[in-house]
Fold this protein.
Amino acid sequence: MANRTSKLTDRAVDALPANDSDAVYWDGELTGFGVRVRASGRKTWVFQTRVRGRLRWFTLGHYGAPGIENLGAEEARAQARQLLALAKRGIDPREDRDGDPDAYRAPSPSVAELGQRFLDDYVPAHCKPGTQALYRRMVEKFIVPALGDMPAGDVQRKDVAELHHSLRATPYQANRMLGVLSRMFVQAEIWGWRPDGSNPCRHLRQYKEHKRERFLSPEEMARLGAVLRAAEAEMPAAVAAFRLLLMTGCRKSEIRDLRWEYVTADAIELPDAKTGGRAVPLGPGARAVLESIPRTPGSPWVFPGRFPGTHLVDLQGPWKIIRKRAGLEDVRIHDLRHTFASQALALGESLTMIGKLLGHTQVQTTARYAHLARNSIQSAAARITDSIGDRIGDSIGDGIGGSIGGAHAQDGDPPDAA
């Protein structure tokens, strides 16, 4: 959040409150000069300006932070004016001038400050809500605690490698953290906080991830169906949502956030799914589920929330109850999507078709089901072989020890011509 004040003085900064999220208060007299107030109450002087067309951001020092020398408003303003004067002369304070690497150089913003700007400026504009939550978790839980106090410009590959290695017990989290940190440093280069091409995450290898491919067997689907029928009166919205997930192969968010305007006679037209807009075809069973859901007057949501204007948020709670009753406690909601794919393969659908049904944009994403396709092919071959065997079984049996087609020929006599 950014605000503008008439003039930043010590008294004015003392009066600035800490809010639920970080905020920057800009000076009304000196453009680009401001103070960042963190949710913790810590206050830091900042300055931003353009040097030869490139935006540069500087952390000048801290104000009133316990244990850290207090940099007053006039001192900070003087530093900002010096940086502005250099910028007007085309001198980049972050670059080595006349062989002195510290000349004209203000302290580099910390990784914590980079992370906050990344979450404030980049993530909301470029990421969907689910990705925003993932990025925030990676920054706040892993990146800032480990690297937050380091200047963003000083982080080296070995620092990132150590952090990545510390998370090796959870390869998925380690790799997601590395991806988020890499994106942060890309933005640091764009914002002028690091030199171009200096991303310290480059060349680090991700850990091998073992994708979980749990799907329901026919017997497990029957058990789940019985539990869903028994729970209809208790949790009708959740039961309908789980049925739609199973019958469409949709992602949880696509069903949870579904609006009636997206539902047509034969499809769900999603304008902004994970991979962009897509149409989810509806079979008779899925259409019947949607037709059974009562509409809430004034609500656009297929699954309204408890409060007006909101949609259903929590499916995990009801799912834990349902799966426990069905004896499927290792099954996640996402495994219903896997079950849809496995059933499609069992019925002979190609991986290409399944990719279209699931909304995959890359063949590699659907390729994870290839081993299930091989199982389906093997089953089909077995069925065909058994069918042929049923018809020619006697001939094969008679031919053991003789020759098929010539089992009754005498020694030396040629078999009958075809």
